[in-house]
Amino acid sequence: VQLVESGGGLVHPGGSLRLSCVASGSIFSFHAMGWYRRTPGRNNEFVGGITSTDGDAYYAHYVKGRFTITRDTAKNTVYLQMNNLKAEDTAVYYCAGADLESGAYDTWGQGTQVTVSS
Hints:
By secondary structure, the chain is an all-beta fold. 0% of the residues lie in helices and 51% in strands.
């Protein structure tokens, strides 16, 4: 299964963006779907995820209350709604799929750039 992100771009501080991640197969082939981000000089930073079994979403503390992860199982798509964006949210955002057995995120999309700047 391949993952393709879209929806990145340039936004002012306080603005919103919605990222999409389309899977080429069923998202139920993954234990969970997640979002990570990477900035120059920093490791991948976990943003949040959503479980396949019950659709529960969970978030890193630095985005909780601002970001929301949802899914459309009919479209095999996961979304990352980002509100009240800050400059420090600037990064390349990656969609990831977690292995059914190990739970480790090991399937990755190509990434989409999000830039928050005035």
